[in-house]
Design a protein that fits this description.
Blueprint: E1 2-5, H1 12-37, H2 45-67, E2 72-74, E3 79-81, E4 85-90, E5 93-99, H3 106-114, E6 124-127
Helix pairs in contact: 1-2, 1-3
């Protein structure tokens, strides 16, 4: 199964939400699904669920860093922080960029994304 990105919305606000949902999809597809697929099939259901809870907790921790809730180390003079961006490119040119620290909040999308809800505007189509 292959996921093909849909055309982004023209409306600026809709495009920003679409981009954030697309980023959530990438995280859930390329990180969460990847980790879950590596749980041994013969694993007891209770243990399997605990492993999935650990995976989800790690993803939520990443999203807290993406939102700026965590992810800094400082002293009286210096600060090191982690920032992340969501980029939309067209023909190898960046045409839209969102710093997740300024977005709607990756943590806010977490529970919907976990249930497969990636917004009102479809972000992908599927080919086999």
């Amino acid at each position: 199964m292959t996921y093909i990105l849909t055309e982004p919305p023209k409306d600026e606000r809709s495009k920003e939400l679409w981009l954030q949902h697309a980023a959530g999809f990438i995280i859930f597809q390329d990180m969460r699904k990847y980790a879950i697929d590596r749980i041994p099939y013969k694993q007891d259901d209770d243990i399997r669920q605990k492993i999935i809870t650990g995976i989800d907790d790690a993803i939520y921790g990443l999203m807290m860093m993406m939102d700026g809730v965590t992810g800094t180390l400082a002293n009286e003079e210096y600060l090191v922080r982690i920032e992340s961006k969501i980029l939309l490119e067209k023909n190898d040119e960046i045409i839209h960029e969102i710093n997740t620290l300024e977005g709607d909040g990756m943590c806010m999308g977490f529970h919907g994304w976990k249930e497969g809800d990636f917004g009102k505007t479809p972000i992908y189509t599927i080919t086999k």
